[in-house]
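1st attempt posting a full record on here, be nice pls
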Amino acid sequence: YEVGLEDPGLAKVLSDTLWPHTDQYMLRFGRQITDRTLNVDFDIQEAEGIAYAHVTRTVQGLFRVLALDSNEVVVDSLVKPFESTFTRHIRFVERPVVDDSVDYGGGQGPHWRVDAMTIGDGLTGTKVALEEIRIYSLGSDAPLLVIPADGIDTTYYNRRDMPVFGAGDWVRVEVDVSNTGPEFPLGSGERVFYHYGWNRFHKSRHALIDGDDSGNYDNTFVGIWRVPGPGMGHNHRTFRGFFDVIDMGTLFAADEAVHNEIWTLPFRSHRRGH
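the predicted structure (as tokens):
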């Protein structure tokens, strides 16, 4: 095959990867975590009554791609290592001690509470990046929420800043991404998903779409999403959520690294009238 001449890498994709060019395979992706480390650095400014925790979590493992036929039999597979680094910054404020005889769980010395934190940012590789997230009420052009990449690790959000949606409401989500290239030659060069849930048994994933009917791709991914309810017996619930962009140009090649970025974005769902 030739790379970078006339075919922009397509021959390499078709000849030595799992891209399903002869049969209609179903592709399954997954990560097997083999090691993880956690590091927390504290910056305590007692004179101002503020402290910061700078959290870095490193995850190592194997990224797996399985190709299954119509009978869900694995006909081909690809496994390659990956390493992801997740960062988040947490701000604490000192809590007044109103009674020295009461143990607040922190022992002797100042007592602190979480005041705010930054959006969690996870990065694998260097090719793709999330640039901005916008969320709208369906039919409105005024965004309910805008999160830009600029300041992602310096802008702190408290509980009052958490997005709150009515259960069953429909919203439109737009995600801008960038790719340093070369991009995947078929369709959009990336895939973007929104994952949410309240535990490992209650979760969901939605794909966002880049481009229009004319086949134009502008790296703005759009999706319509129905806000889940808080669950039977609950009037409100906080959901964990994250946006995920992954590069397709390197996904199916065993000798290429995994490239993706993740932003965490929790939200709160509540029933109307409660």
